[in-house]
Amino acid sequence: MNKILVTGGLGYIGSHTVVELLEQGKEVIAIDNLNNSDIRVLSRIEQICGRKPIFIEGDILDKDLLRKVFDEHKPEGIIHFAAYKAVGESTEKPVMYYENNLSGLINLIGVAEEFEVYNFVFSSSCTVYGDTSNSPIGEDEPLQLAISPYGTTKLLGEKILQDLVNFKPFKVVNLRYFNPVGAHPSALIGELPLGVPSNLVPYITQTAAGIREQLVIFGNDYNTPDGTNIRDFIHVVDLAKAHIKALDYAANNDFKLEYFNLGAGKGHSVLEVVKCFERVNDVKLNYRFGERRAGDVVQIWADASKADRVLDWRTELSLETMMESAWKWQQQLGD
Ligand code: NAD
Ligand code: UD1
After folding, report:
1. Which domain covers residue 46, as residue numbers?
2. SS3 per residue for 140-165
3. Percent of the chain with pLDDT over 90
């Protein structure tokens, strides 16, 4: 597979994946409506790779545009990132989330079917496991109805794809990301949170940069060693690389549907993350302990051994590297 269509290709995970694809010599067609990204990412990608993807500014809700893209560029595989992803916002605007994330997916598979492009990689999330206490979580853990409309779109997205492969010759790889953080080592691309970040690491870096006054750690009375929540943080560059492995897997194997957890296979507490950030960057962070945040799972980390075994993929970058790169990225954002 040489020509890859990447939806949401200028977003956080999409841009890092486009870099990895280009570095593997692939031809990349990226489509993005810039709803949550910036056109400057394109030239940043070129700075890193020495070339850039074919870029189409457009919406995957526009089926005619998708047809034009497939007709003109003839992709052989699809990586589908384009979606809204803010959990909190999804509780205020559920229908907007269903429409973008589910109609977007349905349009894309519809056009892919018309053009007989059957290799499909889907961005799913560990949110499909719901509020579980069974960490490390394997892929056979039963899925739970999500707590947020965002999570529902991931669960239903997986269900639609599961159904699709029973009737059409698609090969679908569902990738369930745990907590992606960090930025490219060049600090040329990274996460661009709009407004006040709700995720931990952008909040840490913005507090260190003086944009936010204080980080509140949501709860230190959980039943965990230091009382704070535990998550499986994964460096976005490691995560991006898994998409190349997933495409290779689809190209070389006969199957209908596969699922992989993408995480480090190790949990870190929120307090550990904060202390690691302070240590590796030699920065003192203004933080305090506050109330628990509604809907937070106490602790969750992946059993990522299936991706290791089947895809020959494993994480290589440490929590220290995640914190260093996140801070480097934040510092250049101010420029
Ligand atoms: P992101 O918002 O940075 O990237 C998504 C990109 O898709 C953006 O550039 C946005 O402009 C674009 N987009 C959105 N709707 C579109 C549409 N209708 N048409 C064209 N472009 C559209 O998000 P991300 O963090 O890179 O996440 C990528 C995918 O991974 C999403 O599907 C997300 O749900 C999933 N995911 C993310 C995380 C995370 O923590 N970042 C965790 C689990 C799963
Ligand atoms: C959340 C979503 C998940 C989504 C992911 C990426 C939920 C239940 N899960 O994961 O579906 O894929 O975001 O968008 O919403 N924290 C603080 N202070 C802060 C921010 C966060 O203490 O200011 C803590 C949280 O309580 C949590 C941890 O840091 O324990 C990680 O939070 P966050 O980065 O928001 O990710 P998740 O909640 O794990």
Report:
1. 3-185+234-263
2. CCCCCCCCCHHHHHHHHHHHHHHHHH
3. 93
